[in-house]
Design goal:
By secondary structure, the chain is mainly α. The protein has 8 helices and no strands.
Length: 171
């Protein structure tokens, strides 16, 4: 590699790093309000796709759209219970994944979340879970745990699992 090519690549790398830093600051700003979810309306298509990717085999054949909405609603409700710092991190993650640049860089999706197939979303989730950068792996676990725990925490899902419910009732 000659010196000219080295300088061009270095300049391009600096511009890219600066641009990504600006994007991170611009799109990752989250306002935390006690008792409110960090999930915004623009996050809902992404959460529907993630619910489909995570819960595909557990979703009913009839009433699938309603079940996906229920799963997303349980995710939103569960996110309200997180500590403020965890809510801020979740909000940043959702903002970055919802953004077209973040969606392309992290989720490797060219199309929108609405157009993503369950197989594409599952591929993203598996890659996110096993990402070579360990700092990104907790993002997968946050999405997975909030979605799956919310879904399987619903009493109407217990019968399908063969779970009779807790041995006591809370009043």
């Amino acid at each position: 590699m000659n010196r000219r090519k080295f300088f061009k690549l270095s300049a391009a790398g600096l511009l890219m790093a600066g641009g990504l830093g600006w994007l991170g600051k611009h799109f990752a700003q989250v306002e935390i309000v006690a008792g409110q979810s960090v999930v915004q309306p623009q996050h809902l298509p992404m959460l529907r796709a993630i619910a489909t990717g995570l819960l595909d085999s557990a979703l009913p054949a009839t009433g699938r759209a309603e079940a996906i909405e229920t799963a997303v609603n349980t995710f939103v409700n569960a996110s309200k219970m997180l500590a403020a710092s965890a809510q801020a991190e979740l909000g940043q993650l959702l903002n970055i994944l919802e953004n077209p640049v973040g969606r392309r860089l992290i989720a490797d999706l060219d199309n929108s979340w609405e157009d993503a197939t369950p197989a594409q979303v599952q591929a993203f989730l598996f890659a996110f879970r096993d990402h070579p950068i360990p700092a990104l792996q907790p993002g997968y676990h946050a999405l997975h745990d909030l979605m799956v725990a919310g879904w399987y925490g619903l009493p109407e899902q217990w019968a399908d699992m063969g779970y009779p419910g807790p041995p006591f009732k809370l009043s």
